[in-house]
């Protein structure tokens, strides 16, 4: 018998798995549970670092030196207040780490202010909404058809904060907002905030043009760089702050390859002050100093190797998209091509949908996920499959490896039994056992 009650609002299959795990835990001795946790950690490492290639651009692998910071003993220490005047004593080392991480973030992203005390990318967006809007205000945000993130919409933190989100009009060919239509919409709706940046970024977004629209209607412009912060840090894509974004939010564990967390950078002193107050004494107060240390180590990697890493991510992404296309995989393309970034997409209808396709690939030894595309919808499923290269490249996958990789992916998608591909995938994966682009 479990302690956790059954939740009627959770999908039945998911809740059945939850209850099965909870029941096993409830019936096991504490020592057995502890051993199981240890084994599960190793199983996760086996999946991600030995058995499978990770094609998911929403995740990455950390520099082991950064990862070690998470187990360094400082994560449980409170750090309330400003460096130089902390509420608790004995925090001299931690407050120096806090400042180092912020300074490095400002350097890497060309910003005057960096808010590092953010627990996640979703909360970075909430911080930004709170700094620029009040409940009841209207914002305009990219829709799911071009990868618009749920946090910008009614089901996410924008809705939870009480904002009214209007989907931005899109240009399917440019895979971003339609600037002319957005200008007309903003003129009618007078939003307090316009957002750019999505979970699938194929081409650069028109930041400067949207800033002009925002200025005209008295709105702020937020750039969500959760996915493309790595190629921005590596100077492969333009700097949104320099192009006019008032603030830029991001996750730190995706293309950036750091710890799970969020980061906000800005050149606007007024917004920086609001974000500071939201962090403390508002939403964060005490924060994870170990995460700050891990982020600092990660940012040092970007200072040293960011340009090379970002360029290679994009080169491998473009080559892999082209190689899959030649093998009959229906890569999503516009008149501009498949991608100019570290990620691209596949039309997933022929595989039963993006989620179904990702399950097939998992069986074949590849980790991926579904995504929305501006094409015909699939009822109950995502119509796209998202593929990215941050972790591939971090493990050393290069242009010379793309053809073999594409062969295996294409076969995994088409095979009657994709599990038969998995041993060959694992054998190929074994050749990539050293991390690159790190100090």
Proportion of β residues? 5-15%
Tally of helical segments: 16
* Main sheet overview: 7 strands, mixed
Tell me the CATH architecture of the largest domain: 3-Layer(aba) Sandwich
Strand order of the largest sheet: 2-10-9-8-7-3-4
On the 0 to 100 scale, the average pLDDT is 96
Total strand segments: 14
Q: Low-confidence parts lasting 5 or more residues at pLDDT below 50?
A: none
CATH domain class name of the largest domain: Alpha Beta
* Tally of discrete structural domains: 2
In short:
The chain has helices at 12-27, 30-51, 64-69, 92-109, 121-132, 157-160, 179-189, 207-217, 229-233, 240-243, 269-283, 289-326, 354-364, 390-394, 402-414, 422-429; strands spanning 53-54, 113-118, 138-141, 164-167, 170-171, 176-177, 193-196, 220-224, 247-251, 262-266, 343-347, 366-367, 369-371, 384-388.
Give a verbal description of the structure.
- By secondary structure, the protein is an alpha/beta fold.
- It folds into two domains: 53-62 and 305-429, Aspartate Aminotransferase, domain 1, CATH 3.90.1150.10; 64-299, Type I PLP-dependent aspartate aminotransferase-like (Major domain) (Aspartate Aminotransferase, domain 2, 3-Layer(aba) Sandwich), CATH 3.40.640.
- Helix content is 45%, strand content 12%.
- It starts with 11 loop residues before the first helix and ends in a 10-residue tail after the last helix.
- The strands form four sheets. It has a seven-stranded mixed beta sheet, with helices on both faces. A three-stranded antiparallel beta sheet has the order 11-14-13. A two-stranded parallel sheet has the order 1-12.
- It is built from 16 helices and 14 strands.
């Amino acid at each position: 018998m479990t302690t956790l009650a059954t939740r009627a609002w959770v999908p039945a299959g998911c809740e059945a798995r939850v209850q099965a795990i909870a029941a096993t835990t409830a019936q096991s001795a504490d020592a057995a549970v502890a051993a199981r946790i240890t084994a599960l950690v190793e199983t996760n490492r086996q999946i991600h670092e030995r058995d499978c290639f990770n094609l998911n651009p929403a995740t990455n692998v950390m520099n082991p030196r950064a990862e070690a910071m998470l187990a360094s003993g400082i994560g449980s220490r409170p750090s309330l207040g400003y460096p130089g005047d902390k509420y608790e004593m004995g925090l001299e080392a931690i407050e120096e780490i806090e400042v180092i991480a912020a300074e490095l973030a400002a350097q890497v992203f060309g910003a005057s202010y960096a808010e590092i005390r953010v627990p996640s990318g979703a909360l970075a967006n909430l911080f930004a909404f709170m700094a620029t809007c009040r409940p009841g205000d209207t914002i305009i945000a990219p829709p799911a058809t071009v990868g618009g993130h749920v946090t910008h919409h009614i089901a996410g933190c924008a809705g939870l904060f009480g904002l009214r989100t209007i989907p931005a009009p899109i240009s399917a060919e440019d895979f971003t907002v339609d600037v002319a239509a957005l200008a007309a919409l903003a003129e009618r709706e007078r939003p307090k905030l316009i957002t750019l940046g999505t979970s699938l970024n194929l081409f650069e977004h028109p930041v400067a043009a949207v800033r002009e629209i925002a200025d005209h209607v008295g709105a702020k412009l937020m750039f969500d760089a959760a996915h493309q912060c790595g190629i921005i840090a590596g100077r492969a894509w333009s700097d949104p702050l320099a192009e006019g974004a008032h603030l830029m939010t991001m996750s730190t564990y995706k293309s950036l390859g750091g710890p799970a967390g969020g980061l906000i950078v800005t050149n606007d002193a007024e917004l920086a002050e609001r974000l500071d107050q939201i962090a403390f004494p508002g939403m964060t107060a005490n924060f994870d100093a170990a995460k700050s240390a891990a982020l600092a180590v990660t940012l040092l990697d970007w200072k040293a190797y960011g340009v090379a890493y970002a360029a290679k991510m994009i080169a491998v992404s473009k080559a892999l998209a082209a190689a899959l296309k030649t093998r009959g995989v229906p890569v999503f393309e516009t008149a501009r091509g498949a991608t100019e970034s570290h990620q691209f997409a596949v039309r997933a209808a022929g595989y039963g949908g993006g989620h179904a396709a990702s399950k097939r690939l998992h069986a074949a030894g590849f980790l991926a996920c579904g995504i929305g595309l501006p094409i015909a919808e699939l009822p109950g499923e995502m119509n796209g499959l998202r593929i990215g290269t941050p972790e591939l490249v971090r493990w050393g996958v290069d242009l010379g490896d793309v053809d073999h990789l594409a062969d295996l992916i294409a076969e995994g998608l088409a095979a009657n039994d994709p599990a038969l591909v998995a041993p060959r995938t694992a054998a190929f994966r074994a050749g990539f056992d050293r991390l690159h682009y790190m100090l």
